[in-house]
Amino acid sequence: MGEMPERGASSFSVTYETARRWSNSQHSAAPAVAHADEFVQVSTRDAEKVAAALAGRDDMAGVLGPASDLALPSQRWLARHWKLPGAASELAVRSSNDKSMFREICGQLGFPHYASVAGSTVPELCEAARALRFPTLVKPVDSTGSRGVVLCLRPDSLTQATPRALEHSPSRRVTVEEYVEGMPLTVEALVDNRQVVLYAVSARVLTPSPYFITERLTLPADLPSDVDRRLGEMLRRLCEELDYASGPLNLDLVLSDGDLYLIEMEARTGGNGIAELVETAYGVDLLTATISLAVGDVAAVNPHEPRQVILSVVTAETPGRLRAIHGLGELAALPGFVSMRMFVEPGDLVEPYTQAAHKIGYYVLSGDTPAAVQASARTAQRLVQVELESP
Fold it and tell me: Where would one find coiled-coil regions in this protein (predicted)?
């Protein structure tokens, strides 16, 4: 959504305060801190320091690192260290943090696949990628939120793309994958006692090349029944192969010419408001269920027939300082309005939407039919406009 021509500042207080009333999140770099009984400022990647900071405690019930791939190794280490339930298998954690390993597992399972190579240096990757079909996507094997992902139309563009991807990789490793065209999807699943007890499939609208970041999610995705059945079987076999017994599972995939290509997975809850989307559509509180599993309880999963739901991300096209987000009051009055969440305040610097972390906010709409919710979404897109000042 683009920036509007400059308006008078008088409209700002109304539109911003409306957002504050309807948003459940408070502006903060770490919004959960306000809700925590205790806050310990230690990196979630340093499990031993976390353990040391909490040494002597006997009231640990479970460990979670929601929506974070990088926290998964610590989550597993701490659960085992404190002898708590909910520790994911080592293979599930490694596959969540290494896209090339996940590709290998999909190949071992005989899933539809596309060629890819992985490496740590530009010459190594350029040489290995000669056998690939272009265009390709260059990705850090272990980044999230589309950080460092670059589309390469020709082999000679790898020399520029690979260093950019390496900058975003904690392990300094990159994968080059053949690009699969089709319908982008995301799956949010819940596994309990080695059974996939729920999986919700959303259709994704992505930003244009070269970033491919989620702009909109529509749930449930309109999948043919045979494709949906195949997906359920693929999820079952994947969890079996990973020895993944309990917890959330988030996957990106593409439906292309009737085949399902699994792109990447994470053994954790998804970001971008996906939990709220699933709860609105199916009545299942994924976060509560995930917490229950993490402490060894039974997850309550009783989905109703899905409502049609759309989540739209609010973004800026250019950098600047936020002056106003217009149309939020009118958005809240739309039929089917569910919620909105804004993550920046007036005066904050805003970046173009080149990675998921740069979103300004999002809103959720629902309806009884696809046509009803799509109509509300079209109206909302006209209403909600971002106004920026020069930085």
Answer: none
> Of 156, 178, 200, which marks where a domain is finished?
178
Of 148, 178, 208, which one is at a domain's C-terminal end?
A: 178
Kindly give the residue spans of alpha helices, DSSP state H, lying in the chain.
12-22, 47-53, 72-81, 90-97, 99-108, 122-128, 158-167, 225-242, 274-282, 286-294, 328-332, 370-383
**In this model, does residue 27 exceed pLDDT 50?**
no
pLDDT tens string 219-260: 999 999 999 999 999 999 999 999 999 999 999 999 999 999
What does the pLDDT look like over 172-192, one tens digit per residue? 999 999 999 999 999 999 999
Residues 6+ apart with CB under 8 A from 320: 3, 349, 350, 388, 389, 390, 391
Identify whether 110 is part of a domain: no
Kindly state whether residue 373 falls inside one of the protein's structural domains: yes
Q: At residue 163, what are phi and psi to the nearest 5 degrees?
A: -60, -35
Find, among 244, 236, 290, the residue nearest to 91 by Cα: 244
Handedness of CA 95, 100, 103, 105 (dihedral sign): negative
Residue 14 lies in a domain: yes
Residue 25 clears pLDDT 70, i.e. is over it: no
- Provide the Cα torsion 76, 77, 79, 85; round to 10°: 40
Res. 9: pLDDT tops 90: no
What CATH number does residue 127 fall under? 3.30.1490.20
Dihedral over alpha carbons 238, 239, 240, 243 (to 10 degrees): 130
First to last CA, the chain: 18
**Residue 28, pLDDT score:** 47
Q: What are phi and psi of 234, to 5 degrees?
A: -65, -40
Residues 175/181/182/185 CA torsion (nearest 10 deg): 20
